[in-house]
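pinned: reference chain
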Amino acid sequence: MKRFLIALFLLLASSPLAHAQTDPTSRSWNQPVEPYRIAGNVYYVGASDITSFLITTPAGHAASGKEAPLLARGGKGDFLFGDKSTFPPIQADRILHDGDTVTLGGTTLTAHLAPGHTMGNTAWTMKAKEEGRTYDVVFAPSMSILDGVSLTKNVNYPGIGEDYGKTFRLLKSLPCDVFLGSHASFYDGLGKAERLRKGAKENPFIDPQGYRDYLARMEKKYQEQLQKERGAKP
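pinned: its structure tokens
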């Protein structure tokens, strides 16, 4: 049977990637990387830091309801970037909501709305089989707070602080064996890929502790900024 590939793009159009590739940081994030298999039917086909994943199945194709209007506007009216990062309008074939699933060729991906970094920030989960074992895979969204974003005084995104808190609780509740994310640097993607190429006996992408550590680092920064902003109030 002909094999189709599903591209799972975790970085949404409202994120910094939308700033064309005009600055050194964006260019450094998008250097070419040789594709490789991560675990089971999950493959990496992204750049040096901006990630894209392929999940191989015998059938193919499936957006988040919060992001669909922004995509349809071509990026205009973003809560942080305004009209600075526009692109040709995109109409979603299917709008996914929290808890919705996409099942293709025996593989089921579940969408978990994880707002904060963007309004439509989404985590994805699935199961992958490797050498007779089944692993919980988490495609974690970015939990960083972009420069200039206020958690307590944000007229364009009034509930952003609360959303971050809810999302941290959600992500900590997800079972995770294979930790992936929207930036390879979140989970040391390049380092783990190099260890695979050198013949690591154990798959370095099976990293539940790395997932917990990532969430702990990000939540600490969130709490610090939240406390700083609240302390600055009269």
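why pinned: The mean pLDDT is 83. Residues 131 and 187 are 22 Å apart (CA to CA).
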